[in-house]
Prior knowledge:
Elements: H1 3-9, E1 22-26, H2 27-30, E2 31-33, E3 39-48, H3 60-72, E4 87-96, E5 105-112, E6 123-130, E7 136-143, E8 149-152, E9 157-160, E10 165-174, E11 186-191, H4 196-210, E12 215-217, E13 222-226, H5 233-241, E14 244-248, E15 252-256, E16 261-264, E17 269-270, E18 273-275, E19 279-291, E20 302-314, E21 319-321, H6 326-335, H7 340-352, E22 356-357, E23 359-362
Parallel strand pairs: 15-23
Antiparallel strand pairs: 1-14, 2-11, 3-4, 3-6, 4-5, 5-10, 6-7, 7-10, 8-9, 11-13, 12-13, 15-16, 17-22, 18-21, 19-20
Amino acid sequence: MACKDFCKNLSLLVLLLSLTTAFGGRIKDIASIEGNRVNYLIGYSLVVGLKGTGDGKATYFTVKSLANMLQKMGIVVDPNRITVRNVAAVMVTAKVPPFAKSGMRFDVEVSSIGDARSIEGGTLLMTPLRGPDGQVYALAQGQVIVSGYEARGRGSRRVKNVPTVGRIPNGAVLERDMPVEVSREKFRIILDYPDFTTAKAVQDAINRRFGENTARALDSATVEVSVPENTAPVDFISIVENLEITGSKPAKVVVDGRSGTVLLGGNVRIDPVAVAVGSLVVKITERTEVSQPPPLSPGETREVPRTTVEIEEKKRRVVPLKGATVSELVSSLNMIGATPREIISVLQAIKEAGALRAKLEVL
């Protein structure tokens, strides 16, 4: 059976095939400049204007928050006498891009934290967004857009996606600059995936372009770069980011046991080993029969359980794998009709046997 048929039959099996162990690309594609990262903000607020799908009276903090908000506006109400279903308490989260300046707008995520059924059609009230230091950096407000919905009747209920999570495009405005500093003398390059070979490749590429001792690999994840004299840091960093390098990819097999997904790199190899996957199917069937005594006999009519046990063992061949690459592994496992779950067990067994020349990562 061809690989196409194999992938068709095993829809949960995903194979990522690569032809070489080396890769080429720009430094900016595999690393980032230290400090050039997103910043996370969070806030608490209320979404109003819902169509009876908001928090119930049992969610007391929603009622209390509503009463506190009205009190700040000069309206004093008793929280114990508030009964509304068009308000929901939410957490508002946002990712601010690096080097963001005051006045810039960005998206926010709105998530219900009470027992609201949906926040579709609601409006987020003005929400201060704080950073890890407790300072307010942005304000958010606007119409919530939800991709899911909920519909219910007296005896049925239907929900699509997640109607209690929404988004407000450009719903927040930055009120103060994010604290980011860029040195005019040195900066550091942080690799997305630490690797000594790649760190050395980055160091060598920069030194070839700007001279020896310009860059120095500190460890497998960090390369320190000195900015040449009389050079604008922004211009220099831009050139460094676009330098081409050649690195190596580690051989790795990633397995997701929950979904049955297997990700294999093309440079994964297997030492000679034999694989057999057997399936033992046990079927137990129970049915109830009525035992009827003969007429005029002292017996009683009773229900008698009858249990049937069937055992079926599927016969499969033992397939030898000799220095298999990814394509050979797929072909061999396909020959014995392995399912995604069985492939996961096979890979784990091969790793335990010391025949898998790759890192096995189980999610």
